[in-house]
């Protein structure tokens, strides 16, 4: 697996990482811990060194599984986790005083004494401006000085958010929603690169649509059941158009992952496999880059058919 520099942090990450949201997660209709452990172990064998998780994934189960599977190779891998806090009444907040206890919980589950990257987990946009939350970013800097975390940043979705974070905070790690069907943040990638920020692409397969597994008549009973039949039909039509752009002999999933990797500012992409076979297929995507002509055609599909009327998440 080829490694890419992660901004100017000195870390190097595998082009394709492991998104660990789905690991034995009941929200995805999954509950097989052994399969999840095998996904992580086979990922290591494939050369993956980047693992993305969060305390809320599977109510802590994702971090626990990673902790068990990675404890023997901790010094050789990069772990990214996240911070948000839910009060007793279920309200989510990002108070500085809660960062340390939430982090300590993650460290315990991950069986480690440091996390390479800690991200604010899609906070309100005003908190992405460091001038609005100086105490929050000061706490992250303190944890970095103590060696509890190596870098910090934000998981976000929009160009404006990316620009705000890199311009007003010391963040060096940004996880950004981006794929062939959602390219709104792309114009800000260059700014992130200039600031020495590493970019992690989340949802690179558009929750499975860009893998080619679903069409306009598909229906879902997991977290994706939020889509209306009309949205599903539109996605299905776009899948057909995307499929026409995929080079002969290449799968849609590989083309979708390579489209993300064709952006030179991107350090890693983190598809979230449900099975070992899916994980291994994702890693195989690293072998064959797209031509510049195909990359341009995929951008044009976004620009002409989606940009003015984005698909609802």
Global morphology: globular
Major beta sheet summary: 8 strands, parallel
Distance between the termini: 31 Å
Question: What is the number of beta strands?
Answer: 12
- Strands side by side in the biggest sheet: 3-4-5-8-9-10-11-12
How many whole angstroms does the radius of gyration measure? Answer: 19 Å
In DSSP terms (H or I, runs of 4 or more residues), the helix count works out at 10
Give average pLDDT, whole number: 95
**Poorly predicted residue ranges:** none
What amount of the residues lies in strands?
Answer: 15-25%
Briefly note the structural class of the backbone.
alpha/beta
Percent helix, as a range, is: 25-40%
Order of H and E elements:
EEEHEHEEEHEHEHEHEHHEHH
Task: Describe it.
- The protein has 313 residues and is α/β, with parallel strands linked by helices.
- Helix content is 37%, strand content 16%.
- It has an eight-stranded parallel sheet with strand order 3-4-5-8-9-10-11-12. Strands 1-2 form a two-stranded antiparallel ribbon.
- Strand 6 (85-86) and strand 7 (92-93) form a beta hairpin.
- Helix 1 (33-45) crosses helix 2, helix 1 runs parallel beside helix 9 and helix 7 runs antiparallel to helix 10.
């Amino acid at each position: 697996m080829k490694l890419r520099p992660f901004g100017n942090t000195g870390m190097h990450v595998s082009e394709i990482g492991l998104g660990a949201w789905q690991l034995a997660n009941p929200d995805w209709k999954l509950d097989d811990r052994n399969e999840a452990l095998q996904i992580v172990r086979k990922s290591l064998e494939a050369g993956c060194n980047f693992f993305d998780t969060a305390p809320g994934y599977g109510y802590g189960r994702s971090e626990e599984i990673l902790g068990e599977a990675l404890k023997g190779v901790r010094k050789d891998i990069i772990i990214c986790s996240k911070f948000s806090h839910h009060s007793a009444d279920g309200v989510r907040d990002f108070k500085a005083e809660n960062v340390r206890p939430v982090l300590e919980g993650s460290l315990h589950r991950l069986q480690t004494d440091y996390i390479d990257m800690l991200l604010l987990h899609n906070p309100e946009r005003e908190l992405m401006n460091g001038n609005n939350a100086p105490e929050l970013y000061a706490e992250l800097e303190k944890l970095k000085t103590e060696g509890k975390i190596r870098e910090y940043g934000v998981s976000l979705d929009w160009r404006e958010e990316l620009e705000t974070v890199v311009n007003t905070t010391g963040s060096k790690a940004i996880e950004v929603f981006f794929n062939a069907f959602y390219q709104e943040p792309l114009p800000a990638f260059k700014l992130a690169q200039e600031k020495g920020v590493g970019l992690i692409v989340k949802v690179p397969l558009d929750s499975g649509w860009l893998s080619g597994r679903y069409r306009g008549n598909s229906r879902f009973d997991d977290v994706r059941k939020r889509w209306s039949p009309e949205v599903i039909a539109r996605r299905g039509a776009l899948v057909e158009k995307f499929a026409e752009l995929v080079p002969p002999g290449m799968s849609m999933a590989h083309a979708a992952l390579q489209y993300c990797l064709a952006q030179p500012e991107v350090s890693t992409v983190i598809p979230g496999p449900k099975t070992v076979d899916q994980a291994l297929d994702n890693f195989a995507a690293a072998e064959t880059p797209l031509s510049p002509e195909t990359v341009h055609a995929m951008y044009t599909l976004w620009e002409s058919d989606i940009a003015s009327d984005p698909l609802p998440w």
